[in-house]
Design goal:
The protein has helices spanning 36-43, 86-102, 121-132, 152-162, 182-191, and strands at 6-12, 25-30, 62-67, 71-75, 106-114, 137-142, 171-173. The protein is of the alpha/beta class.
Length: 193
């Protein structure tokens, strides 16, 4: 998809704040600092619509990005970050769970993992949660540019096995630096539109 128009519409914490234009939504889930903002910026070909931060745990709301007036990317708070109080983490958890299980226009969740390392226990829990609720998952393994191309398949296999992925779920190697995986990700997204 060629993106010429994208905007951040709202940062929401409650369902009544969510956009009501009925466009398909794709939630982005992943641990803090896995590169969700860089993923968004690369996908929409912008430098800094989604703010990247070196401080993990920055996103504390559901951020709705409207793309080409056709769909939304919804950036949900990253998980697995320790510097946030347990109470805050629980509040985010409830907000995210309510969004993921109760949002009728949600088409799929793009689960972002770091290709360089095996998925964390939190990544596994998120994938299991999606499977439990029959929410389609597109796994995107970022930072592919940090690994020699010859080792991509090995790392991909580790991700697939660690998450115990279903065969039909796609796993896409992605790099916000080089643009590897951008076209492939758009192709997967369009299957759900």
């Amino acid at each position: 998809m060629k993106v010429s128009h994208a905007e951040m519409v709202i940062s929401a914490v409650r369902p009544e704040q969510y956009p009501d234009d009925g466009l398909p939504e794709f939630a982005l889930a992943g641990r803090s600092n896995v590169g969700k903002s860089s993923f968004i910026n690369k996908m929409i070909n912008r430098k800094s619509l989604a703010r990247t931060s070196s401080k993990p745990g920055k996103t504390q709301t559901l951020n709705f990005y409207k793309i080409e007036n056709q769909l939304f990317f919804v950036d949900v708070p990253g998980y697995g970050y320790a510097k946030v109080s347990k109470k805050e983490r629980e509040a985010w958890g409830k907000m995210i769970e309510k969004y993921l299980t109760g949002r009728s226009v949600l088409q799929a969740v793009i689960l972002i993992v770091d290709l360089r390392h095996p998925p964390t226990a939190d990544d596994q829990m998120m994938y299991d949660f999606l499977k439990h609720y029959n929410i389609p998952a597109i796994v995107v393994a970022t930072k592919a540019d940090k690994i020699p191309r010859g080792k991509w398949d090995k790392h991909k296999k580790v991700v697939r096995e660690t998450l115990e992925m279903e065969k039909r779920d796609p796993i896409i190697l992605f790099s916000a630096e080089t643009g590897v995986g951008v076209e492939e990700t758009w192709t997967e997204i369009q299957k759900f539109m």
